[in-house]
Amino acid sequence: MKPESIAEQTLYNTVRLETLDGGSGTGFFFNFEIDGKSILMLVTNKHVVNNNPNETMRFELHLMGDDHGDSGENYLVTYQTQWLFHPTHDLCATFTKPLFDEVYRRTGKRVFCRINEENLICDEEHLKELDALESVLMVGYPRGLWDEIHNYPLFRKGFTASHPGYDFNERSIGVVDMACFPGSSGSPIFILDQNGYTDKKGTHYIGKSRFILLGVLFQGPTIGVNGDISVVDVPTQQRAIVQSRMMMNLGYYIKSYELLAFKPMLKKFIDGE
């Protein structure tokens, strides 16, 4: 496939991450701009990599065809790498260029992916321009499920459950109303309007597209059989919530501007500090 729509391009933005102990989660590609240089990273949650900065992960990559689209071939890698940990939130990231170079050396083909850029991020001021209720899209691998033949993620649709412009109880946290299951940790959450939208002032933007990286899923409230409610990291293994606890179709996300906290760390790497 050569993706044409924004939705089709998001099929190539994520990977299904699997730990050697059988846990699974979601990672996505993000491009950081540092001193005019593009630094491509793979982003997920700390708890997806078992809070281990040297965790080994398995995942499949799409390979590029002669037409510079998806060749239909997938390449399974086992990647032992260093994960950079966000200073305050459940986020981590790792460099992908060494991996992509090695895949090319072994296969003679480039990795085919689509990358989120910094211009998809809304800062705190611009988030307040959004409405309290916005339609959202999450891309990932709930319960580890995915299209195994084509190596495609699954889409989940929902709505903002808290106002995107205001923090929900904690710094840089928001809530979405959608089904969030084990394996969804690390999933990017977007606002995607491909055929027009209406802003909170009632202005209609006919035929105009809107694409915003709202945040990254990391937690969700669960309810016990006795009715008690607690908030837990979205598990990476199904057995973590069976028997006595169920997800509540709500998910907590880290707002995307927190990704920019990685930039000072990346600059130190570039400067050799």
UniProtKB/TrEMBL annotation:
It comes from the Bacteria. GO terms for molecular function: peptidase activity. The keyword Protease applies. GO terms for biological process: proteolysis. Keywords: Hydrolase, Protease. InterPro entries: Peptidase_S1_PA. This is Serine protease. The lineage of its organism: Bacteria, Bacillati, Bacillota, Clostridia, Eubacteriales.
